[in-house]
Amino acid sequence: TYLDWLSDSGYDSFCILCNQSFTERDTIRLKCLHLFHKDCLHAREANMANDTKVESRRCPKCNDKIFPAQNQTSPTVEVLKVWLATTNWGRQGLGLPIDSSINDKAIPPPPTFNEKAIHEGPQERTQTPTVINMDGRVDSPQMGYNNKPHERSYSSRHGASSIPSFNYEPFTSQTTHLLNDENP
């Protein structure tokens, strides 16, 4: 799931195709949950030969197939399918007919960058969190972190008399008969 992936992986705040921050341009999350700039992924895929097999179109990071199965669904997959349908290479992979009004080569390529400048200097961290949503939308609120503790109180639906008592003595006393399988 997304939460498992998020907790098990390091978060990359830069697109591996262009080495620029995700906050710079529109993003798309693949079914494998890796995130890319839409224009970077489109440029990569649109430059492949027109007869490239669907199975050959894979995530640049983990090599998983880009196209979801016909019966695969999730909020992320639904957003991905909508975006893929806006390109002819994506339509082909989804099993949709080619749209003659779409020219994949006419979509502007991603901006160029100075790779040396990105890798030489220290990376700056902002004080505002960047939130990348399931639909690939990037939110960067202009407010600081809230470090105030949250207080919560809990109460039982039952009266105090209905709560069973628990004898902690076996856990706190020095009894050896429990360890030696002897009867007291």
UniProtKB/TrEMBL annotation:
**Domain RING-type span(s) in chain numbering:** 15-63
Q: Which GO terms describe its cellular component?
A: Golgi apparatus; membrane
Main localization (coarse): membrane
Compositional bias annotation for Polar residues: 156-178
In alphabetical order, the GO MF annotations are: zinc ion binding
- InterPro entries the record matches: U-box_ZFPL1-like, ZFPL1, Znf_RING, Znf_RING/FYVE/PHD
KW Zinc (keyword) present: yes
Q: What is this protein called?
A: Zinc finger protein-like 1 homolog
Question: Per the UniProt entry, what species is this protein from, by scientific name?
Answer: Strongyloides papillosus (Intestinal threadworm)
